[in-house]
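Throughout our pipeline, every protein is held as a single compact record rather than as scattered files. The record that follows is passed on verbatim for readers who wish to inspect the format:
___
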Amino acid sequence: MKKMAIIGGGAMAEALISGMIVNQFIKSEDIWVTNRANQQRLQYLETDYSVNTSYDYSELFLGADIVILAVKPKDTAAVMERIRKYVTEEMLIVSVLAGISLKTIELLAGKSLAIARAMPNTSAAVGKSATAIAVNQRVTEKQLKTIQRLFETVGLATFVEEKQLDAVTGLSGSGPAYIYYLIEAMENSAREIGLEQQIAKELIVQTLIGAAEMVKSSAKSAKQLRLDVTSPGGTTEAGVQVLEDNEVQRAFISCIKAAAARSKTMGESLRLELKVH
């Protein structure tokens, strides 16, 4: 790879920059970043990561192999209008724009392009994202490997059909928020039963890490692992029964379905707003 151009300098762009550099996917001097007008943000990225920044698109795109689109979805049309003449069919376009389809990007570009659409989550900031990726038919086998290596610098990466990305958004894209919600509830309960805040946090975090590792390393299902620690008449059974009585599992299922449905609705709304059919 000779050069990468990143359009957008927000949190996700920074997470990708950090992951790619730390994992030696690309050298910092081969990364070029731009945004709409936040020069202070670009200066920060340049200082902290030794990347190049520029508002000169001719300089930004010259010799670029990969272009990462990391702007707000509502700005997609304006961004594509600005960069259209600089994007060539030899470049690989990688989008992390929620709700913007592969077809929409290609139509806005006005030319046939190799495009990958990825749905990482905020855990990319600590190298633990769960990223799902869909690609169009112009993406080559070599580019597929490049895309996977790119997103593996910030966590797990897997390929799916584009129609599955709304479901992925509801499950893992929004997933960290569900876990934080659970942690929040555990912290509140710890306070009510008299545990000191810092001790409670350490216990909760380690409990979650341990449970996740058990699910990852064990051949048993999550249900079986739960049953293994739920002794008849014991403390765990008492707690789980309250969750059952309050239909917490059903609430989580409804939560994920609602998020997936909203992702689909937002995508359709953005497509209509961008006037792309």
The two ends are 34 Å apart (CA to CA). The mean pLDDT is 95. The beta strands are 4-7, 31-34, 52-53, 66-69, 92-95, 114-119, 129-135, 155-159.
